[in-house]
């Protein structure tokens, strides 16, 4: 299992992927986000599913890009079309033998970037069959892998108008919620950002100790917010009378 998250806001794009690899009782780490292209004409690809399928699909995509003799795809739609063509080729070659071995052809991918002829950044979620959907302003994120645990905070707090600094925090908290509840998701994490106005990419990776302050702050303040939340009607029926909060005494004149 894995957790990969792509976010699109007015400022640009954010990608986050965990680095944990599980195989039976064995744990290891590997990068699950790949930057493709060169210079300003780059895009990222994040994957979940069988690593052998991922590696072969990316190898075919790199071969296709090399045939272009240094020229990038003109648009992200062209890049997505090339990736899905490579994915379908791998499926035609390997799906039958994988399924005969009780392995699922289950590669999902998130692809995002802005190429020379694109008016703005674009991001797509690609399914194992090669079909895809595009992120939109109503739901400005896409996730693959163990998606259930990190979804609530994104649905509640993230909008297309969220600034990049806040969106990065929400991306981390979404991962942290997933890591906390799923043994198959964990550090290290890789993060990339694309600033639309300057058309610039940034990339970094973080381990468990690098984000100790943020993790401890969130745990501490989340507990404190729960304490400060207004009491609900359950107090009258479910809390013993001697444990209920005392009402302030009325002042007498």
How would you describe this structure to a colleague?
The protein has six helices and twelve strands. A five-stranded antiparallel sheet has the order 10-1-2-11-12, covered by helices on one side. The chain has a five-stranded antiparallel sheet with strand order 5-6-7-8-9, with helices on one face. Helix 3 (151-157) packs antiparallel against helix 4. The radius of gyration is 22 Å and the shape is elongated. The longest helix has 25 residues, at 76-100. It has helices spanning 51-66, 76-100, 151-157, 164-181, 212-228, 234-238, and strands at residues 3-9, 12-18, 20-23, 26-29, 33-38, 41-48, 108-113, 122-126, 132-134, 141-145, 189-195, 200-206. Helices cover 35% and strands 27% of the residues. It has one domain (3-228): Glutamine Phosphoribosylpyrophosphate, subunit 1, domain 1. It is of the alpha+beta class and 253 residues long. This is Peptidase. Pfam families: Proteasome.
CATH architecture: 4-Layer Sandwich
Query: What is the total domain count?
Result: 1
Structural class label: alpha+beta
What string gives the helices and strands in order?
EEEEEEHHEEEEHHEEHH
Radius of gyration, whole Å: 22 Å
- How many E-type strands? 12
What spatial form do the alpha-carbon principal axes imply?
A: elongated
Cross-sheet strand order for the largest sheet: 10-1-2-11-12
Low-confidence stretches: 23-28
Which fold name fills CATH's third level, the topology? Glutamine Phosphoribosylpyrophosphate, subunit 1, domain 1
Average per-residue pLDDT, rounded, comes to 92
> Whole-Å distance between the termini?
67 Å
Please describe the biggest sheet, giving its number of strands, its sense, and whether it closes into a barrel: 5 strands, antiparallel
CATH superfamily grouping: Aminohydrolase, N-terminal nucleophile (Ntn) domain
Number of helices: 6
Strand content: 25-35%
The CATH first-level class comes to Alpha Beta
């Amino acid at each position: 299992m894995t957790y990969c998250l792509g976010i699109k806001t007015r400022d640009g794009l954010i990608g986050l992927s965990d680095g944990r690899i599980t195989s039976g009782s064995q744990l290891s780490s590997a990068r699950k986000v790949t930057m493709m292209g060169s210079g300003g004409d780059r895009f990222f690809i994040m994957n979940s599913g069988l690593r052998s399928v991922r590696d072969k699909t990316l190898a075919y995509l790199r071969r296709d890009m090399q045939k272009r003799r240094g020229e990038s795809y003109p648009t992200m739609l062209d890049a997505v079309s090339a990736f899905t063509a490579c994915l379908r080729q791998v499926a035609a070659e390997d799906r039958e033998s994988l399924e005969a071995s009780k392995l699922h052809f289950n590669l999902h991918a998130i692809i995002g970037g802005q190429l020379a002829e694109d008016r703005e950044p674009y991001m797509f979620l690609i399914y194992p069959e090669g079909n895809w959907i595009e992120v939109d302003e109503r739901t400005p994120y896409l996730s693959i892998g163990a998606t259930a645990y990190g979804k609530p905070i994104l649905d509640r707090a993230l909008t297309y108008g969220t600034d990049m600094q806040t969106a990065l925090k929400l991306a981390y908290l979404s991962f942290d919620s997933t890591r906390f509840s799923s043994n198959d998701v964990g550090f290290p994490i890789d993060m990339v950002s694309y600033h639309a106005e300057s058309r610039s990419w940034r990339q970094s990776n973080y381990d468990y100790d690098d984000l100790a302050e943020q993790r401890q702050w969130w745990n501490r303040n989340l507990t404190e917010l729960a304490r400060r939340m207004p009491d609900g009607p359950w107090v009258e029926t479910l809390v013993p009378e001697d444990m209920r909060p005392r009402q302030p005494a009325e002042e007498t004149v």
